[in-house]
Amino acid sequence: MTEIWKKSWWKILCVALIFYTIIAGLLMPVPTKAIVQESIRNQHFHVAIWFALMIVMTFSLVFSIRYLRKPSEQNDDVASETANVGLLFGILGIIT
Fold first, then answer.
1. What share of the chain is helix, strand, coil (3-state, %, to 5)?
2. What percent of the chain is predicted at pLDDT more than 70?
3. Lowest pLDDT segment from 34-38, 45-49, 73-77
4. 69: domain range?
5. What does the pLDDT average to over 60-86?
6. Which of 8, 22, 68, 75 is at a distance of 20 to 30 A from 15, taking alpha carbons?
7. For residue 62, how many other CB atoms are within 10 A of its CB?
8. For the chain, what is the domain count?
């Protein structure tokens, strides 16, 4: 059991933080202003998604350049998959 905990503690922490963010983002009190009403709740998710998008796309750019300079399957895989994750974040950002 401790072997599993040592290897995957960060996965458990990530899942707990994601649940906390979703619950807090939807349930915590927000400023009541007539102009924004409840749409301000989107900012909890929207801004974080766009920051994640920029970071992931930067990784994709770096690994794409690394692949062009010195072709390796690992660089190609990282560049491709980070671009896919970046597209997912972009779609989620547009939805929010």
1. 85, 0, 15
2. 97
3. 34-38
4. 2-95
5. 97
6. 75
7. 14
8. 1
